[in-house]
Amino acid sequence: MTGSGTQTSETKAALEEGAVLSPRFDSNGLITAVVTDSGDNAVLMLAHMNAEALRLTIETGIAHYWSRSRQSLWKKGETSGNVQMVEEIRIDCDQDAVLLKVRVGGSDTTCHTGRRSCFYRKIVSGDGGPQLVTDSSPLFDPATVYTDH
Q1: Those residues with Cβ within 8 angstroms of residue 45's Cβ, 6 or more apart along the chain or in another chain
Q2: Of 115, 94, 112, 121, nearest to 31 (Cα)?
Q3: pLDDT tens-digit readout, 65-114
Q4: What is the phi/psi pair of residue 43, to 5°?
């Protein structure tokens, strides 16, 4: 896996149509990862991966990410038990984002708030402008699972 520099039409075609994995990490060494449930395709979370996280995910079949807030590698579910077993990995056309289709172990939750998905709020129009409406309740109490946020 290598990042790419300047693109010619030949390298662009190879990137978009070829069989070589050449992820294009951003200036911080990260690539965006969209995570969905492999069963119902629900969007569970958005995260980032560095080269090591992507390599470990491919090699182990368990999702690994780069925590920007902690500045460290993060094996999803290591603390909560809600490990993400990777069923499929896709990369977009210009190789700057990945899609992970996963099965979630444990209590089938992904979000550190105790919910299945990190996308548990809708933006709706309100009298004073846009408002957030929560459409799911936590499935566990995060305070009992996580000791260090």
Answers
A1: 35, 110, 111, 117, 118, 119
A2: 94
A3: 999 999 999 999 888 888 999 999 999 999 999 999 999 998 888 888 88
A4: -75, 120
CB 98 within 8 A of CB 89: yes
- CA-CA-CA-CA torsion sign (19, 20, 23, 24): negative
Residues forming a β-bridge with 34: 46, 99
Distance between CA atoms of residues 140 and 20, nearest Å:
41
Gap between the Cα atoms of 101 and 8, Å rounded: 32
What does the alpha-carbon distance between residue 52 and residue 65 come to, in Å, rounded to a whole number?
Answer: 9
Q: What is the pTM of this model?
A: 0.84
Q: List domains and CATH numbers for the chain.
A: 9-108 (3.10.20.810)
The amino acid at residue 28 is N
Tens digits of per-residue pLDDT, 20-33? 999 999 999 999 99
